Amino acid sequence: MLRSAVHLKTTVLIYLLSLDVCSISVLHNDFKINGCSDTEKESVCGSDGEEIWHADFIQQMGVNTLPDFADALRFPGFYESSIAAQEACKQNLAVCIKAYKSPPEEMDPPETSIYPKNDVQLGVENSLVCHVTGFFPPPVNISWTKNNVVVTEGESLSRYRPRNDGTFHIFSSVDIVPEERDIYSCTVNHRALQGQAQTKIWGKLHQHYSTDKCIQSGFTLALLGAATGIFFFIKAAATHYLTNCKCNIINADFE
């Protein structure tokens, strides 16, 4: 369900496009989002939930965000139409805020997860990805630390991407060369969290190392326990045997 005019800060247009490829009808969900607020503006085009173009209002140009291996697409006139849409959005925003007497803005808190981009090997370059999803409205603030020290080098941030329920998600990543005891954290701040930052910690190598040590220690203790048990078992058996022998000898002498 799309965000309605309760916030009145985002105008959304979603339409369906049917493509005929090799005589097979394929249905795609294409969308264009124009959003504005008192301080921010956004214009994004995409398909099937993935962004393929956005307007960069700072550089005053349109940006194709498809990966390098994808066929290049051109969006003639999209940036100009985005500017016009922003003007309309500003006007509608002012009218609606007045009509609805500045209603409180609905907010959804983010959900955060952290994971490595590739299989982890000590001393081998990799990236950690922090996925923040399900939040409304943008923006969110994302920061990284390594062993409790703030990290900015090698950090990258994707564009805000819409979800089908009207919320957004975003990816942040940081380049790493993992070592055995390294611990990384991704911290997310959003208005819906009301000052309670959301932090996810990644230190699997450290955890695995500790787990292995625990397993080794447990195995060693198990062996010691087994050896101790055998020792006491033999001792008890020997004691029982000697006692019976003494009893038999005494009985023999007595007879």
TrEMBL record:
It is found in: Membrane. GO terms for cellular component: MHC class II protein complex. GO terms for biological process: adaptive immune response; antigen processing and presentation of peptide or polysaccharide antigen via MHC class II. Residues 110-202 form the Ig-like domain. Coiled coil: none annotated. InterPro entries: Ig-like_dom, Ig-like_dom_sf, Ig-like_fold, Ig/MHC_CS, Ig_C1-set, MHC/Immunoglobulin, MHC_I/II-like_Ag-recog, MHC_II_a/b_N. Keywords: Adaptive immunity, Disulfide bond, Glycoprotein, Immunity, Immunoglobulin domain, Membrane, MHC II, Signal, Transmembrane, Transmembrane helix. It is a single-pass type I membrane protein. Gene3D superfamilies: Class II Histocompatibility Antigen, M Beta Chain, Chain B, domain 1, Immunoglobulins. Residues 1-24 form the signal peptide. Pfam families: C1-set, MHC_II_alpha. Belongs to the MHC class II family. This is RLA class II histocompatibility antigen, DP alpha-1 chain-like.
